[in-house]
Amino acid sequence: MNKTSAALKALRLLLPAALIFALASPLFARGARAGGSTGALVVGATANPHAILLNLVKPDLAAQGIDLRVIEFADYVVPNTALISGDLDANFFQHIPYLESNSEWSAALANAFGVHVEPFGLYSGKIKSISELKDGSTIAIPNDPSNGGRALLLLQANGLITLKSGAGITATPLDIDSNPKNLRFRELEAAQLPRALADVDAATINGNYALEAGLNPTRDSLIIEGAQSPYVNIVVVRKGFENDPRIQALKTALRSQKVKDYITANYSDGSVVAIF
Asked: Does the residue 1 lie in any domain?
């Protein structure tokens, strides 16, 4: 083998490694920022209202030298995975029962502060009142433990079912004790529920997904949680970072009069309720 051939062979061996490093380096850099002491603050969020509220306060944080970077997610799992792995500094999309529904999440992550409630409702494209639900009607509910239990508790509060004693916030259809209308339940990923309305008699839908689907929670829901719901949406961080100065600055910004006024003006239908 001559020197030219040897050099070409070495180059071929090095190229894949270089390519892998080039592809991975943006993720590595993002992970290095997360939880660090730089001015950047990388927050994952679902679109409406979480990312909207975060983008609203970006100028306020920028004035303090904090570069707020909002990464939008379309599901409820990846934001926690990305936070644990260090690709995010915080996320803003979930409530405490959802965080506590997974032991890995609850072991690694912590509630930094609460911001608002998105009342959870039952919607239908086929009926106008729960009194119209027929025997054997199918209701779609979220398939994650906390939101599935939340859906069943909402149905119980409105007299459609009765749950076994002690079933609590992680109740499943197996915990139903009384079901006078013989309702059937279809468990789906929360993000899929608005699209399932055409295929079921009714669906329980989280407030943010209802908004994204063009549904007005107050006007369009058959039944809805009250403003005193315990399912407050929270900003979540890795444990130990609750008092990070950037997180405290974010808390002040998101719980400001500016944000409260924005919520009042833009969610006057009651689909988002500030808790501060």
From this structure: no
Query: Does 152 lie in the same domain as 212?
Result: yes
Q: What is the pLDDT of residue 2?
A: 44
Instruction: Provide the pLDDT confidence category of residue 118 given band limits of 50, 70 and 90.
Output: confident
Least confident residue range of 26-35, 86-95, 96-105, 229-238: 26-35
C-alpha span between 173 and 195 (Å, rounded): 21
pLDDT-derived band at 107, boundaries 50, 70, 90: very high
Please tell me the pTM assigned to this model: 0.71
Is 150 in contact with 168 (CB distance < 8 Å)? no
Alpha carbons 162 and 164: distance in angstroms, whole number: 7
Query: Domain holding 244: CATH number?
Result: 3.40.190.10
Question: Looking at the structure, do residues 211 and 243 belong to the same domain, yes or no?
Answer: no
| Pair 150, 193 in one domain | yes
Residue 9 burial class via C-beta count within 10 angstroms: exposed 0-12, middle 13-18, buried 19 and up: exposed
- 17 located within any domain: no
Give CA angle at 225 (172, 175), nearest 5°.
Answer: 15
Q: Are 215 and 123 in contact (CB under 8 A)?
A: yes
What is the distance between the alpha carbons of residues 209 and 272, in angstroms, rounded to a whole number?
Answer: 12
Residues 66 and 90 in one domain: yes
Over the chain, what is the mean pLDDT?
87
Structural domain total, the chain: 2
Q: What three-state secondary structure class fits 101?
A: coil
For residue 5, the model assigns a pLDDT of: 43
- Domain presence at residue 254: yes
Binned at pLDDT 50, 70 and 90, residue 170 comes out as confident
Domain that holds residue 43: 34-119+231-274
**6 inside domain:** no
